[in-house]
Amino acid sequence: MLDSLFPMRFLDLGVILAYLIGITWFGSRFRSSQKTLKDYFLGGRTAPWWAIAFSIVSAETSTLTVIGTPGIAFRGDLGFLQVVLGYLAARLVISTLFLPHYFRGEMYTAYELMQRRFGPNIRKLTAGSFLLLRSLAEGVRVFAISIVISIILGTGEMSSILLIVALTLFYTFEGGMEAVIWTDVVQMFLYVGGAIISLFVIVQQIPQGWDHIWQVAGAANKLRVFDFRFEWSTEFFARPYSFWAGVIGGCFLTTASHGTEQLMVQRLLSAKSQDESRWALFGSWFVIFFQFALFLLIGLILYVFYQDTGRAAPTVPDRIYPQFIWEFLPPGVAGLVMAAILAAAMSNLSAALNSLASTTVMDFWKPLARKERSEADYLRIARWVTVFWGGVLLVIAFLARQVQSVLEYGLGIASIVYGALLGTFLLGVLTTRVGERAAMCGMAAGLSINLYLKFGTTVAWTWYVLIGTAATFTTAWLASFVLPRENTQNV
Q1: CA distance readout (Å), 465 to 64, 222, 403
Q2: 3-state secondary structure of 432
C-alpha cells in the first residue's frame, strides 16, 4: 500500500497523524467536567453563543459538504447558493416558532416538546424517526471518509475508516457535548482554513489568472446563481437548484433539520439562554454562506484547471477536490488540507453520536425504566449507548459503498423523514384541536408520500420536505375531525 507513496508523502501522513492524535487528546480532556446528563448531553449550558454557532456550522458541514460541494459546481454551476438563501429564511421561522417553546422548562431533546403537546406515543414516534434518519444519513457521511482515506492510502477498504471512527468515538465517549462543541470550533477553523489555502494553490495552477477563470467559467454557463424559471411541469419539480426549489425547499429543509432534529436542537438547547441560542443560530448562517460559496468556487476553478490541462478528471465527482489536493498541493500542505477534510468528518460524527445517544437515553431508556437510577448510572449508560451507535454507523457505512454523490444522497435521505417531523412539530405549535392519534396518522402519510417521491418519481430532493410537511399537516388536520380528540395541552 505504501509502495506507491514517494518519500515526501510521509510528511503529509505525519501531519494527518499529528492532527488525529492532537484532536483526540483535546476532546478527551473534557471528561473531568462530565458529572450529570446535563453535562454530557448539553455541555452544562456553559458554552458561549459564538462557540455554539461554529458548532452548528460544523454539524451542517461534514465531509459530504467538503468533498461534495466542489463536485456540484464542477459538473453544474453556482445554483446551490439558492438553497443557502433558504437556510436564512428557516432561521427566522425557528427563532419565532420553536425556540420560545424549547426554553420553557429544561429540555434535553426536541421530542420532549412533542410529549408535552400530544403524549408519550408521538414522542417515541418522532424520536424513533430521528434515530432512523440520523443513523442512515450519518452512515453515508461515515462512508464519505473512506473516499478521502482511499486517496491518501491508495485503498478503498472499509477497514481504513475504523481508525477515524474509533478516535472520534473515544473523545465523544469521554467528553460528551462539551467535547463535541469545542472540538467542532477547532475543526471548523481547520477545514475552512484548509479550503482557503487550497483555493490559492489551485489558482496558481492556472497561469492566466482570475480573468481567464471567469472567462472559461462564463462560457460554460457556470457562473449562474439564480434560476427564476417557473412552469408547472414535472421538469420544474425535477430541478433541484432553481430559485423556487432553493429558497422554499431550503427553508423547509433547514426548518426541519435545525428546528426538529436533535442533532441541531441539542446545540440550541446547550446555550445559556434563548437570546444566546438565537445569536448562535443567525451567526452560523453567515459562516455557512461563506463556506458554501468557497467550496463552490473551488469546484468552478477545478473545472477550468481540467479544461486547460486536458487532464482526465475523476469519474466520481466527490473525488475531484480531495484527489487534486493529494496530487498537486505541496507536501505538508496537502497533509494539512486532508487533515482538514477529516476534521469535518470527525466533527459531524461526534455530534451525531452524542445526539443519537441523548435521544436513545432521554426519549426511550429513561421513560421506560422500571426503577429509578442515579445520575452516575445514567451517565455510564449514555456512554455505552454512544459506543453502540458507533457500531451501527459503521455497518451502514459499509452498505453505502455504491453511493455516487454523497452530499445529494445524504440530503435526500434526510429530506424523506424531515417532512413528517416538521409537519408534526408545526401541528404542535400552531394548532390545538389535533390530538396524538391524528398527528400519528399525519406522520404516516407524510413519510409514505416522501418515500413514493424518492423511489417512484423524478421530483428533486429539495421539494421533499415541503411536500411531506404539507401532507403531514393536512392529513392530521382532517383526521382530527374524525378521530376522538384526546386531552391536549398548549406548548
Answers
A1: 20, 27, 21
A2: coil
Q: How many CA atoms lie within 13 A of 474 on its CB side?
A: 10
214 CB-side CA count, 13 A: 2
How high is the mean pLDDT in each 10-residue block of the chain (491 residues)? 49 82 83 78 85 86 73 80 85 92 84 88 89 81 71 62 80 82 84 83 83 85 76 62 76 87 87 92 91 89 84 75 79 78 76 88 83 80 90 80 57 76 91 89 91 82 86 94 68 57
% helix / strand / coil in the chain, to the nearest 5?
Answer: 80, 0, 20
Q: How far is CA 339 from CA 169, 193, 241, in A?
A: 17, 11, 30
Confidence (pLDDT) at 6:
45
Q: How many residues does the chain have?
A: 491
The per-residue pLDDT for 281 is: 93
76-111 burial code (b ≥16 CB/10 A, e <16):
bbbbbbbbbbbbbbbbebbbebbbebbbeeebbbbb
CA distance 95 to 117: 19
- Per-residue pLDDT at 4: 44
**244, three cell numbers:** 423556487
Specify the amino acid at residue 184. Answer: D
Which stretches does DSSP call E strand in 33-97?
none
d(CA 341, CA 83): 22
- In whole angstroms, what is the distance from residue 5 CA to residue 153 CA? 8
Q: Which CATH architecture has domain 2-368+378-402?
A: Up-down Bundle (1.20)
Cα–Cα distance list, 301 to 55, 291, 295, 401 (Å): 28, 16, 10, 28
Asked if 383 and 179 touch (Cβ cutoff 8 Å), the reply is no
Count of helix runs (H) and strand runs (E) in the chain: 21, 0
pLDDT at 490: 55
Nearest one of 393, 372, 380, 395 to 176, comparing CA atoms: 380
Q: 228, 144, 194, 176: which is closest to 28 by C-alpha?
A: 176
One-letter amino acid for residue 157 of the chain = E
pTM for the full predicted model: 0.81
d(CA 6, CA 8): 6
Cell readout for 475 is 392529513
Backbone angles phi, psi at 343, to 5 degrees: -60, -45
